[in-house]
Structure formats: structure tokens, C-alpha cells
Amino acid sequence: MSASGSAYPDSVDRLIDEFASLPGIGRRSAERLAFFLLKASTDEAMGLARAIEDVKNNVGHCSICWNLTDSDPCQLCTDEQRDHSRVLVVEQPRDLIALEQTGMYRGGYHVLLGRLDPLSGVGEDTITLDALIDRVQDPARNATGSPVEEVILGLNPDMEGDSTALLVAERLEALGIQVTRLARGLPSGSQIEYANPAVLADAIHGRSSVSDPPATPTQRPGG
Questions:
Q1: CA angle 78, 87, 190 (to 5 degrees)
Q2: Quick check: pTM over 0.90?
Q3: Helix extents (H) in 84-158
């Protein structure tokens, strides 16, 4: 019996505790993962350990768009076939991946790494808005040195996402930059990472100006 009073050896207890600390993993799931590794070969188990080590040692944020990358600048920012005069702003790297998988957008990105949540004490200083402003003001700070002509807001369509989008739009419009947003083909209150590619493609093509009020169910097109 371990020092903690568990029937597991101390090393197994620590492994279960580490798995249980991951989001969405409860104690029972953590035990199943631990026993899977115990039954796996040494090569399989150490392969997982090396993958975790490599991620922590080699993956960081792109100095231009703040996406996850193992090279700086990232492959998206160094791709000269993309239109870097357009920058699509998202909250997290997983949102960028979801949008990129549609194949419908060939511009640049900017990852805020969060969103405003005043009730939780999350303010403007916790997101990469200043880095976005720098890209807009100085083409040398943008991918391939391209001047930014349009910023597309691709934030999650919920209260925090809308609050963040409003702040970003206010800062950018003061600089005379065209600011648009993804069309509300994305259901309000949902998450971009869970939307299917068809919905995301429609949202990209149907983006509108941030200054245009969202249509209500009683409004007719053009009315």
C-alpha cells in the first residue's frame, strides 16, 4: 500500500493524479489511462513521454500571428501565396485550425489567446490585442511585410466573444482599418471548434461589417 493509503504503488498513484488533473478526465478515466500505459510496451509508453517532452520543449507561439508553431514565423505567416492584407482574428489556436480546415480562407490570422471576461478578472492585458494593433500600424510586423487592409473578427458568438469583438473593432476602426465579422451562420452561444466545415465556410463568405447591426427574425433582407 502506498504512503497515501491507496492500494496502488506510489508511482501509479502519481500517474493517476496527473491524468485526473487534465480537463475532462475524472478519476475513473485516469485509472483506465494509467492501466493502459502499464499494459503497453516500454516503447509505446516512452513514445508518449517523448511526445509530451517535445511539445513542451519545441512548440511555442508565432511572433506574428501567435498561433502554435515549432518554427518562427509559422508556416502560415511565411506562405507568400496567402493574402496577408486580410487578417482573421480568432480566440484560440483550435479555432484557427477549424477555420483553416474549410479550405475557404486564404488570408492571414491573429490568435488573441483568450477573450474578455470581466466577471472572472480577465481584461484587455491578457489577450494579444496590442500585437494585432502593431501589425496593423507597421507592415514590417505583419506576415511578408504586407500592409493590413481588412481585419475579420472570427470570435465565438457568445457574450464574452461579442464583448471582445467590440473592443477590437473600436481599437481598429480608430486607425481607419476596415473591420468585418463572420456571418451569423454560427449559432449564437456555440463554439467555433465544434462547428462543421460547411457552416464555417458559409460564415467566412457571408461576413459583414462590424458596424452593421445583426438582423433580427422580423427583419427582411434589405429592410
A1: 120
A2: no
A3: 93-100, 129-137
Amino acid at 86: R
Closest CA to 87 of 137, 163, 143: 143
Q: Which CATH number fits domain 68-209: 3.40.50.300, 3.40.30.10, 3.40.1360.10, 3.30.420.40?
A: 3.40.1360.10
Dist. CA 128–CA 110, nearest whole Å: 9
Contacts of 88 (CB under 8 A, 6+ apart): 96, 99, 105, 107, 108, 109, 110, 151, 152, 154
- Tell me how far apart the alpha carbons of residues 39 and 35 are, in angstroms, rounded to a whole number: 6
Dump pLDDT digits (tens) for 41-90: 999 999 999 999 999 999 999 999 999 999 999 999 999 999 999 999 99
